[in-house]
Amino acid sequence: MVCRKLAACFALTTGLAVAQPLPEFDERVHEGVASCASSVCHGKTSQAEDSPVWLNEYRFWLRRDYHSRAYKTLETDQSRRIAEKLGLPSATSAKICLDCHADNVASDQRGRRFQISDGVGCEACHGGSQDWLESHAEAGTSHTDNILRGLYPTDQPVARAKLCLSCHLGTQDKFASHEIMGAGHPRLSFDLLTFTANQPAHYTVDDDYLRRGKIVYPATSLMLAGLVLQSQQSLALLNSPLYPGHPVMPELAFYQCHDCHHSMASLRWQPEGQPDPLPPGTVRLNDGPLTVLMTAVDALGWASAKELENGWQRLHQASQTSVAVLQAEAENLVATLEPMVDVALDTRVSADEQRVLRRQLLDAAASGRYRHFTAAELAFLAVESISISLGDEGGFKQSMDNWYETLANEDAFSPQQFAVSARMVRTAL
Ligand code: HEC
Ligand code: HEC
Ligand code: HEC
Ligand code: HEC
User: Which of 26, 167, 193 is the pocket-test mutation for ligand 1 (most atoms within 8 Å of CB)?
Assistant: First the structure.
């Protein structure tokens, strides 16, 4: 999976991407899933043979994609209880829930066939279709034409990550706060590459896809860019009004959940020899994506490795001083990360380099570096993704399955067992 003409793809599309607001803010009419779903459009019963796209995307979404159930989730007992604890009249009418569980655009942006109960429908990701619904199916219309008319560029990694993260991490406009978690909402996690695969895809990346000017990057580049963008967005949230939020306690959902939520009998000190900018007994910011990225950047010998590590140290130290100092360090780190998106996307990580990267992730895991669940799960996913990309995952599947078992229950997560299992994967490699 490679963008054949990388420079050309960039020239053509990054400028447009910057100008493109997220679908929730696109100010266009969202015509509704029913407008996409007719049997002559995207509602065929099986994949069309003579068309560049599947044309059964609607049925696939309905049956296989969790996004089609996102609104129904708000009707469950679990959601009813969450809403009750938060003092909301109902989950299905609360803006904070609908903003992530549906395509919650303003009422004057809802077309005739729009239904909020469709959940995260086509236009929640592809953008309001007011200006492209007719034209996008006409012969001779290019992908760029569609984007200029408001189709959201879901193929572009930066735009895609921003889109997914807007709901899977949150923004300053919609955030699953600790109050919402405390009321029973699950912890949110995300990894661009894995979640893209798990959605699951309702498209095929083939020659025709590339010919239409869509951008495709190698899996490892996408994974690295995802870690950079996720780190950036988490840091940016520290600089939003959400963070100070409360006069005494800052927003707890920015911290490592299990720093507070774990048994006092299972001690989780950083093993000796591992960098730890903070003393025991400190509540730490959730730096999961950043920690794994640091290992990767070091393994690949990127010029910014040392700067990133220093920025990470300073961030944690600043978290013990004042909100203003922390916010300044967060901003510095966002700036350090900025050029890394392009480095990730422009660099072809060779098979040999991927092996080095995997090895270093396993070494770090085996040495106890990832003692927080959020880092451990991303490190596992990175090793798994690289192995799939290298095509050798079959050779040590059993040891990977055993390693995964140590992540099965986050409340019972043991950093020590995670490290021991990582050592066994390393031996099995
Ligand atoms: C408008 C908000 C929104 C956007 C945008 C969004 N998601 Fe989701 N996603 C959700 C919600 C809500 C759920 C949970 C659905 C449910 O089960 O009720 C979900 C579920 C998922 C799941 C299943 C999670 C699991 O536990 O197995 C995957 C995978 C996923 N999303 C991937 C993506 C990807 C990839 C993108 C970007 C291309 C994306 N999502 C964009 C809101 C969103
Ligand atoms: C920032 C976006 C966001 C907000 C705000 C949000 N959710 Fe969610 N919610 C998600 C995502 C994403 C998932 C899927 C998590 C996953 O599986 O990774 C989810 C999962 C859930 C689940 C669990 C679904 C399952 O099948 O396990 C429930 C229940 C739920 N949300 C209810 C609510 C309610 C009620 C509200 C409003 C109080 C709300 N959510 C607000 C994004 C959000
Ligand atoms: C959670 C986000 C999300 C939702 C919801 C979603 N899509 Fe997509 N869709 C994507 C992504 C990501 C891609 C792949 C990148 C691309 O080709 O733009 C894609 C690709 C496509 C493609 C392009 C295939 C190609 O070969 O060019 C079509 C057509 C499509 N989606 C139709 C739909 C329809 C119809 C619905 C609703 C039934 C829908 N999508 C719902 C995210 C989503
Ligand atoms: C600084 C410590 C701290 C952090 C960090 C923290 N929590 Fe909490 N959490 C608490 C406290 C204190 C309570 C209230 C417990 C009570 O009322 O018994 C709580 C309550 C909860 C509850 C309700 C449990 C209950 O029995 O009422 C859930 C669920 C929860 N937190 C999830 C999370 C998640 C998910 C995260 C990470 C995103 C997180 N917490 C981060 C301290 C923390």
Answer: 167
